[in-house]
Structure formats: structure tokens, C-alpha cells
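Preliminary data (for renewal application), zinc ion complex.
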Amino acid sequence: MSGQGSFENPYEDYTSTPQNNILNDPRNGISDVLQKKISNFKATKLQILTTKLQRDVFCDGTVYTGSAGLALYYTYNSLANKNEPCHDALQATLEYLDILNLKGRRISFLCGDAGPLAIATVISYKLGTRRSNSLPDYKELGQRLMQLISILEDSPDEVLYGKSGYLFALLFTNKHISGKEVIPSYHIEKVINSIISSGKRLSLHMKADSPLLWQWHDKVYLGAAHGMAGILYVLLQARNYIKGNDLRAFVKPTIDWLLGSRFQTGNFPSSLGSSSGDRLVQWCHGAPGFVSLCLAAYQAFDDEKYLKIANQCGEVIWQRGLCTKGYSLCHGVSGNAYAFLQLYQATKKPIHLYRACCFMEWCAVERPGTELHRPDRPASLFEGLLGRIFLAEDITRPIDSKFPAFCL
Ligand SMILES: [Zn+2]
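Predicted structure:
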């Protein structure tokens, strides 16, 4: 183990001479050897997931811990064939969406009703006249998704349970039903304004240097799951709906302030004034969740400094990203692999794809003692096995891969 929280990285780093059978020859995809290993892993584990772990898949209906995570996986797979989505597969996906029994308590894509509703809306639209009678029309489902706005002001701002997780669901729906504006702009703008207003309020209240500040459970979290990096990243993905002045005078300076909170090592604290030190390198807390934000800021503001920080996050993840906690998307190695895939998409440099593949390889081979924290939900997308399966699927299409439920 190297320091707290991570195993020493046993992989040789990327060099331009052929090595390790990890990448293919043009270095824009994975090698046949690794491809085979990953395919076997995926087939075996998916089999276990849908048989032995079936009960755990249905422990709840959410994307984060429950059956909608598997629905999301099948939906992405069906849509990957852009010209002709596989209708039978989409129909079968409905088995994993329990939209009749939604609780109406939480608003977000990951842990609330918005995830299952947004996925069902997209499936209903794609099936068109082929949908079964038990599945409502996509417009009706879109309406139900919009009605969740009634709990907006009682929700926190963060991604996992809150408003920015709802915003993601709205963007997701419109993205996959293009040209129809199922969710009208005014609705999306209302959500954005609510997030920005509470950011301004807390900043004023705390007399902060950052023009926007958000908290969750009385703490200003900085990372992707509960904190500022996640909220800002979803806002940047929604930037076409944000007024130019809000973007320049509030969002951008908030990002700059946030990036200024970096440790010397290049990693990020999990919360403001955190005393736990430079410990966590995982999507939910620490550098991995900041890669998406920095790359989106680089795209939005065309400033190289953001790309530079994203690259530095990549170095931190390469050194310290083989988490001892395990393989999960949320706080483990598969989530960290996605940071490399995003860097690869932005730069097209094979080093990032190579590093993603090494982390994938780590996730695909059972090594005793590498998952020191047994997940509470061993089948789930964000804590369990499905996260690794998602990565195994995505890494075969590195340019199109998306961190599920976070990147559009
Ligand atoms: Zn986590």
C-alpha cells in the first residue's frame, strides 16, 4: 500500500514504445488481449448480476443503489447503435424500472425519482408505437418528471440527492429526445436559478470570497457527489440555459475559487476547512470528480489553465487512484478510470487511454485483498459490481464513454 487509502500502482506508466499488450497498434483502442479479458469479465459478471445477485439488484428502484442502475446500463447499450436502437432490449429494460411505485420524496437522478422517470421517458419515446400499454406515453412521463419541481425548494443543491441531480435528469431527457424539447427551457431555467440563488445566499451569509457557495448537511463539500465540483459541472453542462452574466460573474469565479482550494499534491479537500487532510482520491471526494469540471471549464471558457489542472488531477489519480476501498464508481477504481477516459476524450493522448485500461485491468481481475470495504449494495451501479461492468462496456468505445448519471 502507498500511504493512506490506496495501493501502490503496480503498472508501468505509458511509454511510446510498445508494451504490456494494453493498447492496440494505432493506440486509439484496447488490445485484443485485453479486449478478450474484459469481454469475459463482463459476460461472467453480468450473468452473476442477473442471477445470484438478482435480489440485490432490486433492493430499491434508484439508479445509485437499485434496479434503475441496470436499466440505465441497458438503455445506453441499446442507444449505442445510434441509427437503430434495439427495441427488444429497450422493452426488456422496463423490467428494471418501477415507475408505478415512486416515492416522490427525492428529486435527483441518482437517488430520487427523476432517474427512473427520465430513463422511462427516453425509452417510451424510442419505442414509439411499439411501446406496450403498461408504459405511458413519453409526454406524460415528461410531465411527471416536471412535476417533481414541487419538491425543488425542499431539496439540497448537490448532485446525489438534490437540485443539480434533478437538472441532470432534465438535460438527459432532452438530450436523448432531441428536437422535441420535452422539458421546456423555462423549466430548466427555473431549476438553474434556484441553484444559483441558494449559492448566492450562502455566499453572502458566510461572507465568502466565492460568489456562490453551497452546503449539504451544514458542510461546504467540494467534491462531485455532495459538493461544489458536482454542482458546477452540471451547471456547465446546462450552460446554454444560463444567462451570460451569471456564467461570467458567478459561475466562472466560483470555479476559480474552488480550484484554488487544491492541496499542494494536486488533490482536493473533501470539504471546506476539512481537517481530515489529503486522503481521498475518488469520484465522490477528491481529484477524480474535478476532472470533469476542469475539462468542461476548458471547453466553456477556452482557457488552458483548466486543462492543465485536469492533467494534474490525472497524475494524482495515476499515483493514488487504486483505492483500497474497492472497485466502485462512487469511491473506487472504476470511477477513477473514467477520469482518464475523459482526459483521453479531451486530448486524444494515448497515455490517458492506457492508464484507463490499466485501471480497468485492475478491476477485471480478482486479487485477494483489493476490496477492503465490502459494498453495502454489492450489485449496484455506484457502489457495486455494475459500475465495473459499465466501465467494461464503455472502455471498448472510449471516445463515446460517459461517467454514468453525471456526464451527458
Ligand atoms: Zn462515494
